[in-house]
Amino acid sequence: MTDEQRRRVSIARGGSGVTLTAAAETSRRYKQRHPGKYLLDGRAAAKKARTEHPERFRRYSRLKLYGLTHGQLLELLAAQHGVCAICSEQMTEATLHVDHDHNTGAVRGLLCPKCNAALGFLSDSPARLRAALVYLEQRSA
Fold first, then answer.
1. For the segment 36-82, what is each residue's pLDDT rounded down to a tens digit?
2. Domain 42-139 part of CATH 3.40.1800.10
3. How many Å apart are CA 48 and CA 128, to the nearest integer?
């Protein structure tokens, strides 16, 4: 299908008649005329935003991944008295990890980085956790 045919189909369907290739060409020309506005590509811009606003990025990630608003996160942290749900180590908003069930996505609680990593390395398996506990108890002095 030629560009002219695409344009006619677009108009027939109620569109503007601007084809994708024409729109891309217009965008390319605009970027050439205004190079200062497009210094960063998408990935570089996202990395810059994460670096400049880490708390904003964490809040967005928690909302997107776990459906937790900042207020809900603070409520959960207060309900745990600001400590890890496993080891009771004091946590801040910046250091906490949201523990969730990988099958259902349900949030289980807030953990410190070490406890979160430990559960991850044990594949969130109660059987592996019990086996690790038995191992430590038998071999500790």
1. 666 567 777 788 888 999 989 899 899 999 999 999 999 999 999 99
2. yes
3. 40
